[in-house]
Every structure is written in structure tokens, then in C-alpha cells.
Amino acid sequence: MPGATRLRSASAPRRSSVRWVQRRLRSFLFAFAGIGHLLRTQGNAQIHVVAGSVAIVLGFFFNIDRGEWLALALTITLVLAAEGVNTAVEAVVDLVTPGFHPLAKIAKDVAAGTVLLTAIGAVAVGVIVFLPRLWTLVAPLIQGAI
Ligand SMILES: Nc1ncnc2c1ncn2[C@@H]1O[C@H](COP(=O)(O)OP(=O)(O)OP(=O)(O)O)[C@@H](O)[C@H]1O
Fold first, then answer.
1. Same domain assignment for residues 59 and 131
2. For the chain, how many structural domains are there in total?
3. Helix 66-96 vs helix 2-41: angle between axes, to the nearest 10 degrees?
4. Tell me: the pLDDT tens digits for 75-104?
5. Domain shared by 33 and 89, yes or no
6. What membrane topology is given (predicted)?
7. Taking phi first (over 0 means left), then psi (-120 to 50 degrees means alpha), and beta for anything else, what does residue 100 get?
8. How far is the CA of 107 from the centre of ligand 1 (A)?
């Protein structure tokens, strides 16, 4: 039936784009599951979330400017992303190397060191953005107490 053939060929691209969207949605769901695993199981990631939340609250409290919000957003994202990569590296290393191996040690230590580097950067950003403001707030109290 020529009509049926026309109908099938017209709906085929639509079906394939629906499948494409479904596949993309599924990948997003897996990615969100990965974030969930990270936040549920990794104590360090939970500490980073608390620290990031404190920074966001301080940002609103001190009414920081656009550039400072940008630095804060990038910093918080970078630390959490590094923690995610570190967790993934640990999982793969444990999967591939059940016993002790010097290369496994290097992989885990360097991954953990990468998180530490981003955390040091985050502390530096926090100090640059908030320390002068906190000092302005606290200094009169200290001077009043002396
Ligand atoms: N298979 C291994 N071979 C050699 N050294 C290892 C191995 N597994 C772990 N290590 C060493 O032990 C350290 C701790 O590894 P572990 O897997 O316990 O991670 P962790 O520090 O507990 O990480 P987290 O607390 O973030 O889960 C590593 O940084 C590495 O120096």
C-alpha cells in the first residue's frame, strides 16, 4: 500500500528523534544518580556542600557583587567536580586493582591531591571575598571589648 509506506517513512524520523530524546533523558538521570551517590556516600563531598552553602549565605548577607558571585559559583562547582572525579578514580582503581599496587597508589593520591588543590583555591577565594567584610564587622566588636 503506497499510502502506508508514505505514513511509515514520515513517522520514522519522528520515532528516531523521540528515541534520541529518551536516550538523552536517560543519560541525565544516570548523571543525577551519580551526583546522588557522590553526596550520599562521600563525607568530603558533604563537607564541600556545607562549606559552599555557608559561602552562598555569606554572599547574600554581604551583598557581594556579580564578579564575586562568579568566582564563588566557579569555585564551588570546581571543588565538587574534582570530588566527583576523585570518587570515580577510586572506584575504577578498586575495581581494577583489588590488591596493593604502586600505580594504584599514585592514581588515588593524585586524584585526592587534585581535590585538595581546588579546596585550597576555594579557601583563597573565600578569604579574598569575605575576610575584609568579616573584619569590618568584627573589628569594632574587638575594639569595643579592649
Ligand atoms: N590498591 C591500592 N594500592 C596502593 N595504595 C592504595 C590502594 N588503595 C588505596 N591506597 C592508598 O591508600 C590511600 C587511601 O585510599 P582509600 O581508597 O581508602 O581512599 P580514601 O582516602 O579513604 O578516600 P575517601 O575517604 O575519599 O573515600 C590512597 O590515597 C593510597 O595512598
1. yes
2. 2
3. 90
4. 999 999 999 999 999 999 999 998 999 999
5. no
6. Multi-pass membrane protein
7. beta
8. 9
